[in-house]
Write a structure and sequence with these properties.
Layout lengths: L1 H13 L13 E2 L8 E2 L10 E2 L7 E2 L34 E3 L7 E3 H11 L12 H9 L10 H4 L35 E3 L7 E3 L18
Antiparallel strand pairs: 1-2, 3-4, 5-6, 7-8
Protein name: PHF7 protein
GO molecular function: zinc ion binding
GO cellular component, one term: nucleus
């Protein structure tokens, strides 16, 4: 019966199209009753979808995904507390806020990268709060590792505020080398949409110019 159920699920998924990329084979359907939007897991960031990696592992489309109830405190400098690049002045899918101090603003991809690196030591990068912060991040779709921090097992790992600046494809085809990057075109560098710890040139991973997100093999 189990094998038969799996086959049925695969057959049903093959008939569903992803609302983000419009291709068939979307295996994830929004949890909201009455919503039939389906999507591929790699397309989730592009479609602003949220998957909760705990409990029932629920997934939501952009319309029904959870929103942070906490409001970001207005600041003179709207910068990410992790990468120091500009963030929005309000909470959104791409911009998140610590529910405890309400002062730490960060990009979704930055806090996701921090969560995977920090593991069991994951907490707010500003106020160090862990419990409410952890639950909020899980609810908002941040995947958290249960492993020890990466810097304890890998002394050569770089600081967390250093953004990847090289192509990690198994074979880099760029004439300028792995660290060469351009603003657009085949040598534009895309970061992994889940961990933001690896990057690739568009051409090295056969990505079209219209592709806005990419996931590394580890994710």
């Amino acid at each position: 019966f189990f094998v038969r159920d799996i086959r049925r699920v695969i057959q049903e998924a093959a008939k569903k199209h992803c609302f983000a990329c419009s291709k068939m084979g979307a295996t994830i359907t929004c949890w909201k009753t009455g919503c039939d939007r389906s999507f591929h897991l790699p397309c989730a960031p592009q479609g602003e979808c949220v998957t909760q990696f705990f409990g029932l592992y629920r997934s939501f489309c952009w319309e029904h995904s959870p929103r942070q109830s906490v409001q970001a405190r207005p600041r003179q400098n709207n910068t990410c507390s992790i990468c120091l690049d500009t963030v929005e002045d309000k909470t959104s899918y791409k911009t998140m806020v610590c529910p405890a101090c309400q002062d730490a603003h960060f990009h979704r991809h930055c806090i996701q990268r921090l969560a995977l690196h920090a593991g069991i030591c994951f907490h707010c990068p500003c106020c160090q709060n862990q419990e409410p912060f952890l639950m909020e991040m899980l609810t908002m779709g941040i995947r958290i590792s249960k492993r020890p921090p990466s810097w304890e097992s890998d002394p050569e790992v770089g600081t967390l505020d250093q953004r990847p600046s090289r192509c990690d494809a198994s074979t880099c085809l760029c004439p300028g080398g792995r660290r060469h990057t351009e603003e657009e075109g085949p040598w534009e560098l895309l970061l992994c949409s889940s961990c933001a710890a690896e990057g690739t040139h568009r051409h090295c991973s056969s990505l079209e110019n219209s592709t806005s997100s990419w996931e590394c093999k580890g994710c």
